[in-house]
């Protein structure tokens, strides 16, 4: 049996659902999940389907072609079709903070994540021992003003060589270059340590402390060229009070960051995220 | 244009979705919402559809018959079909607590609720002035050991006379009789002032205080014969601490009760709740 | 018996707590509540005490003088002393939205709020029937470009005449003049319908929708001259998703606004808020 | 400089606060934190103080004796005095689940926890590699029906030998013997994977799924002889829906368990928990 996940979006018009479900029935697929959303402001239709195919003769590639030539063109769809056969490959970019790294590697080792981690890249050597203890290849790619270009080149080569599907910035403290973003559109996940759009940029916990907010947050989002302004995948919050110092905010924030980033990784690898207009549709 | 909402559940088997969506397309309906759920433990399939019909000649009754005779029987479905034409009628049962009453009537007056309130029943006269100030008919139906039977009879007559669709117990402090429950199955909504199944029965805030919990809750559920054990529609929680007295818990709980009960009323009237096995499926 | 609440802040230095508690013991007071906070960044000390005095001869005025002449001057304190004898008087300013109004008046009638509401001011007549049904005096003070000055004068006169202690803007849709703010410093409570500092200004739900946030919020704060930038008293949040329209956000937001504003009113009237550096200390 | 933390509880009566703060001032201590709570139901007074002593001649032992002989006896106090000099020693008991273990060791390595972990005990060998990779001594103490007594003896010896202050059961799947509980009263912290008192005992996620709750929780508590009935330290909750399978509940629950257990460990080691009447007072 093969399981196929289909993500579609296109201009809304009548009969899309019936046509797509009919098409799958004709191919002897059984729909085990369907969810849809319509953005009434923009008149855009979104759908996520999971379908099981039990026939020996089923070929995901043949199905993909048929889907493209009939449905996708007729409805002018943007679409992606994933087979359950292949696990997505994730590259981890880190710097000196270890909490998200520990959290993701702990989940990975426990079998909680449906993915592979071919390697970790860091611009510092500090966290290499953690990568080692989890037996994940670690590449030190330092980034300075002068070596920026070479560093980026090195990163691209590694990503290519290991056939990486998406990148997770686990508190990686360097700006990602436009070239990398362009190469991995909506495939670079960042964790920002504030409740965006509040406190964009550096030192958000300091800003939150100064403003005297009563709730702090963390936001996972896809990286776009504008800093901290990409499509939001998940957000989490927790209460704070006047009695919390900046250090307390940072410590409480770490727990948010870990969970909000892990959620984003799971949603992404389970093919539950669709991006449009710098926003996300998150299917259940 | 007419809008039809269809709720279905039946044994899971292949091609239900394609068959139903195809049926609607044949009747010239446009599906504007579809969501489905499969309980894998029990192998039960659930679906909720909203469909728009623009043809002058469309008749909800004819559609209902066709659906019944073809689909429903073939798949052995339990199903309900609602037309947007008719607003559900809600009877409010109250006693002496006024917070849920104020909340629901405030929302009703603001136009937030898609329903009608033909009358309020209370076993006490205390809150009559509130009903009067909102200009809702108020019936005083006292309940004592000796008058229980007559009271129930009176309630049933009023519900019948005003063609009530569902009942909301807004902190109504009397046990509902089996006869009434049988007459309105999954149509009587109660608000219980605890995070069920913790603290079933009377005085849950006192029990919560005694146990020293750090979070309290409220639960809206359909009334069944077993006390506080019916299908849960919604739950809400809030943090408490050792510094809160029982009175503080009661005050904090009031805010939970208001919101959790209002949510249940909205979900019910928007046809987003399906009940099976003493549990609910809540569609988005 | 009289109950006195004391709020103090001053530069932090040794022995403040011992000196103050000693002073109260000398005056035969029994401390029933004490809490303190030190802002280590700014080196400021905050304290809140509740003390009971049972002697017939106790006079709050005499106590206040003694406190001022000995402690307050010695430690260069900013301080306030409240007697439980007097209930604070709150003026409600409203426009056309009724949800916060219904909520506050419902709580008021239920006896949940420790305050008096001498009157309601509105720049529109729409909500007068609600004020009438709750039997609260209603003053219509329209505000147009040309009548702004007179309107403000009228407001000030009413506030003066009724000896108002603090003002609550329950979705009042006019900018408060600097003169009014100056006259009631940290005594005007506003509810802003976003998670500040995100989405300052008009139409925050529209902005939240556009940005695609996964959580929305509401913020109660004291009004200062800079729009939506005053000291935050309380904040609340709730999850939203892509499936929520702007209207859904507005509806969900109403529940937040009601609770977050009511919390601020309770904290203010229970003398649990201290303001400094455009932030608040909120005692438990 | 030495920092002393004092925890007190006793029958409530006038002038306790003034007397204690005065005593500390006489010993040249500067109170940097004070918080108090009175349980009005039981008439019990609780206080937590932090005080700094800068004099060279200050001795914690001398202070402790003076406190005992004057204050503690006069007010019939239960009290504890901790010096900041000594870090508490925590023993970790585990079985086969690794998520809480990864989480605590990650925090420990990051320097987030103010404690030492002399060793880990497990009744299985499965997680030894994790202990090894974090370089923490690991003792395998299998527990079977027949070896229960010896296992307990072995545990007690290890706890004694390493001068353990408190024990954390990080999803340890064995019942703790009364002897161990008696030896470490309010010093054994357990994480239960439900929102207690709902779903006491085994398989709470299965019970939660069956009951159809809309929110699940986790509870950290001190272990007492009655199963899952000890004083609650912290609780956390998260929303679930009909779409979540039991496996989903377990996965979501893991995140709760990690945070709620880590919070309990921090509160305990920061001396912020007082226990009485099977409840806790948690200071800020």
TrEMBL record, chains A, B, C, D:
Domain ACT intervals: 5-86
Active site: 228
One protein family per Pfam: Formyl_trans_N
PANTHER family: FORMYLTETRAHYDROFOLATE DEFORMYLASE, FORMYLTETRAHYDROFOLATE DEFORMYLASE 2, MITOCHONDRIAL
Hydrolase recorded as keyword: yes
Gene: purU
Function description: Catalyzes the hydrolysis of 10-formyltetrahydrofolate (formyl-FH4) to formate and tetrahydrofolate (FH4).
GO molecular function terms attached to this record: formyltetrahydrofolate deformylase activity
Protein name: Formyltetrahydrofolate deformylase
UniProt-listed SUPFAM superfamilies: ACT-like, Formyltransferase
Catalysed transformations (reactions): (6R)-10-formyltetrahydrofolate + H2O = (6S)-5,6,7,8-tetrahydrofolate + formate + H(+)
Protein family membership: Belongs to the PurU family.
Keywords: Hydrolase, One-carbon metabolism, Purine biosynthesis
Enzyme Commission identifier(s): 3.5.1.10
This protein's record includes keyword Metal-binding: no
Pathway note: Purine metabolism; IMP biosynthesis via de novo pathway; formate from 10-formyl-5,6,7,8-tetrahydrofolate: step 1/1
